[in-house]
Every structure is written in C-alpha cells, then in structure tokens.
From TrEMBL:
<dbReference type="GO" id="GO:0016853">
    <property type="term" value="F:isomerase activity"/>
</dbReference>
<dbReference type="InterPro" id="IPR050312">
    <property type="entry name" value="IolE/XylAMocC-like"/>
</dbReference>
<keyword id="KW-0413">Isomerase</keyword>
<protein>
    <submittedName>
        <fullName>Sugar phosphate isomerase/epimerase</fullName>
    </submittedName>
</protein>
<feature type="domain" description="Xylose isomerase-like TIM barrel">
    <location>
        <begin position="49"/>
        <end position="279"/>
    </location>
</feature>
<dbReference type="InterPro" id="IPR036237">
    <property type="entry name" value="Xyl_isomerase-like_sf"/>
</dbReference>
<dbReference type="Pfam" id="PF01261">
    <property type="entry name" value="AP_endonuc_2"/>
</dbReference>
<dbReference type="InterPro" id="IPR013022">
    <property type="entry name" value="Xyl_isomerase-like_TIM-brl"/>
</dbReference>
Length: 280
C-alpha cells in the first residue's frame, strides 16, 4: 500500500511540475541537440543524459545514437523520464534506408525525422535542389503515413541566390507542406547573411522546429564568410536578436525549440543560455 501511495505521489508530482511554465516567455523547457554534447556522449552516454537532466532538460534531438541501438537509447531515456522528439539522420539513410529510419524513429518515440544536409559538391545547384524536393516529398509522405513528420534543417549553402530569392526559398516553396516541414537554425541563417525573423514572417506555417543559438559579437557574416564553432556563445551575449526571433516564433507553427551550442565549452555555456531564456 505504501509503495502504491509513493508511486501515485511521484506521478502526481511529475504532472504538477509539467504544468509549471518554464518562464513567462516560453511554456516548455527547451530541448537540446545531442551534437551540443557530442564529446561527452562519445565517452559516456548514461552520464551525459544524467548531466542534461540535472540542468532540467528532458527533451533531446538526437543527431547520433553514439553506438547505441534505438532500443538501447530509448531504455536509457525512459529510465530518466526523458524523451527524444526529433531524430536526425543522413540524407542517404533517409532516401535509401527509409524503413529502417522509420523503425528507429518509432522505437525512440520521435515525432520528427530531420535531415540537415543535402549532398553536393561545390556550389549547390538548382538541379540538386530539385532532386531534393522530389526526395523530400516522397519520403515525407512515407513518414507521414507512419505518424512521423519530416523536417529539413538549413545550413549555409541553402542561401545561394536564386531568382531574386534563395535556394532555401525554392525548397520551401516547392515541397509539399503536407509532407515537409523545416527546422530553422537561427545561427546558420544569420551567419550566411539572411534574417531568421524575416523567414519566420514569410513562412509562419512551414517551420516546426528551431535551433536556438547565438554568434559571437564582431564575427563577420555573409554567404562566403567562414566561421568556427568556437564562435558559438551563450544566448543573449552575441549578435543575434534571439528575443525578437523567439517572439515572432511564438506566432509560427514551431513546436519544439532546441538549444544547440557547438562550442567546445558548451558544458559551461548551456546553463547560461537556459538562464537567459528563463529570465525573458
């Protein structure tokens, strides 16, 4: 009887905590991209999950399973009351191993499957973009039929100019909204000379996921400018208008926000980013 009462108490406590908003600005605590702690995950998956949970983060977007099977990773998450809402895979796996991707996503409990790179050599061409559109529509439909949503994550080559817009606009406009959504990485958009705020206003219903990150002040931006992951800084300390972007994002279709910090010092920087979002 005591064990049952304890179980009910813990369950009720978790429910109450889940109803408490993360901040006045964001209802839910943002998730984190596994790439943020790639070095830690490569050495100790359970310990890294524990560290993430200690920060109050329960939601992870996995870009890599770090040697674990989907079932093994799901068991580790379940044991900690954590979830994987988005599962990142390579383009080749998406298009040539679709059934395997679907099964892994279902095992993980992921609502989204995400691809972050369209293979290309040299300049990204309209022909390559057109092939990607066909692949995204085809595979996106297959994923949707299995209860999973497909999302494409931008980097920089996407913003190659095309007909007074960009290749990114082409991808958004040519893909079927019923099968293809987008994950907006605000640093990469900004780094390559575009405005994340403008894209959220232009396509409010196409973005479903967001990578929230900031770029060190003084770092130049533009299509041909290279940058280092060491220029990722805690939110609110860099040159990106994070608060304005998030304010606009609340008017969009975005469901999940993920912190991503590619800096080698991410272990120290992520708590600072969380504090910034908490105090908005």
């Amino acid at each position: 009887m005591k064990k049952l009462m304890l179980f009910v108490f813990l369950l009720l406590s978790q429910f109450i905590i889940a109803q408490i908003p993360f901040s006045k600005f964001l209802q839910d605590t943002p998730g984190v991209v596994s790439f943020t702690f790639r070095n830690e995950f490569s050495k100790d998956v359970p310990g890294t999950l524990d560290f993430i949970k200690e920060m109050g983060i329960r939601n992870i977007e996995f870009s890599n399973l770090f040697g674990k099977t989907a079932a093994e990773m799901r068991a580790l998450l379940d044991a900690r009351g954590m979830v994987c809402t988005s599962y990142g895979v390579y383009y080749d796996a998406l298009t040539n191993k679709t059934e395997e991707v679907i099964q892994n996503a279902k095992t993980l409990g992921a609502e989204f499957v995400r691809v972050g790179m369209i293979p290309h050599k040299g300049e990204f061409t309209i022909q390559q973009a057109a092939v990607a559109v066909k692949d995204f529509n085809r595979v996106g439909q297959k994923l949707r039929e299995n209860g999973i949503e497909f999302s494409y994550h931008n980097h920089g080559y996407d913003f190659t100019p095309y007909q007074n817009e960009t290749m990114y606009d082409y991808l958004i406009q040519q893909t079927n909204p019923a099968y293809v959504s987008f994950e907006l990485d605000i640093l990469w958009v900004h780094q390559f000379g575009q405005d994340p705020l403008a894209y959220l206003k232009k396509y409010p219903n196409r973005f479903r996921l967001m990578h929230v990150k900031d770029l060190k002040k003084g770092i130049p931006v533009g299509l041909d400018v290279k940058t280092s992951s060491e220029n990722d800084v805690p939110l609110g300390t860099g040159q990106i208008a994070v608060q304005k972007i998030l304010k606009q994002a609340r008017k969009s279709a975005i469901k999940y926000y993920y912190l991503e910090d590619e800096n080698s010092n991410s272990r120290a920087q992520v708590p600072l980013s969380l504090a910034f979002l908490k105090n908005l």
